[in-house]
Structure formats: structure tokens, C-alpha cells
Amino acid sequence: MFKFCLPPPICLQGDTPPYQFQVHFGFPSPSCGLTRSFLALVRGDLKTAMQFHAFGPLIFAGFLTILTTAVLELRSRRSLMKIYAFLLNWRGLVLITATYLGYYLLRLWVRYGAGDLPWGLDQTALWRFVKIGAKAL
Questions:
Q1: What is Dmax (Cα atoms) for the chain?
Q2: pTM of the model
Q3: Which of the 8 DSSP states describes residue 10?
């Protein structure tokens, strides 16, 4: 048995150089936090990975699924395209894109001036979780 170790990532301390998207537009890109999320996943820290980017674990799982099906297709010499049927459907693409952009806009709203939410929703654990991730951008 071996242990898989990574050096402590510098980017988790917040001293990374600015991304070109942020330099040019003045705000973080939609994918900001994905690399840190992937690094946290590799270390086994799901909570931190979700705080850096909620789609990080989902995209990581998607990559693993694609890798696994590619290996299975090569070994069995038959197509497994049924797995991707939902994603290749235009409704699936619209749903995924709308959800991703909605999450991105929520993160920007939280980072750049979210006020109090109505009905005390800003006191919920989910809202605090989103705020921590948005402030970490």
C-alpha cells in the first residue's frame, strides 16, 4: 500500500497571481475556484472543495465517468453512448448551463454586495456556506 501525497498548494493560501479574466474584467471568472476545488478533492476534503466551487466535485466526477466509460469502451469494443444521451440532448445542455450560470451569478452577488436575504434566510447554514465560498474567490 502506498500513500498519495501532494505538496501543500500555494494557491490555497491566497497568494496566487491574478487570472487574466479578472485582470481584464475586474471580477472572477465562472471557473474561478475549480482548480482549488479539485486539489481539495484529491486531498479528500469534500467540504473545502464545495466551498471553493460547488460544481468542482460534480465536474471531477464527470471526468472520472468519462475516463471510466472510455476505458470500458476500449476494452469491450462497443459504444456506451447511452450514458451521455442526457448531456447530448439540448434540454440537458440548457439545464446544466443555466444552473452553472445561476450559481456563478449568485457567487458574484454574494461577493460584491449581497444584502440581507428576506425571511431570515441569510441565517441558514446553506447561505453561510455559499458566502464562505464566494468570499474565497
A1: 56
A2: 0.71
A3: G
For the chain, the first-to-last Cα distance in angstroms comes to 36
d(CA 107, CA 98): 14
The model's confidence at residue 18, banded by pLDDT at 50, 70 and 90, is low
Q: What is the mean pLDDT of residues 83-100?
A: 82
Cell 500513500 locates to 3
Kindly report the average pLDDT of the chain as a whole number.
Answer: 79
CA distance 128 to 124: 6
pLDDT of residue 75: 93
Asked if residues 6 and 42 have their Cβ atoms less than 8 Å apart, the reply is yes
Asked whether 113 and 9 are in contact (CB, 8 A), the reply is no
Q: Please write down the HEC assignment for all residues of 11-64.
A: HHHCCCCCCHHHHHHCCCCCCCCHHHHHHHHHCCCHHHHHHHCCCHHHHHHHHH
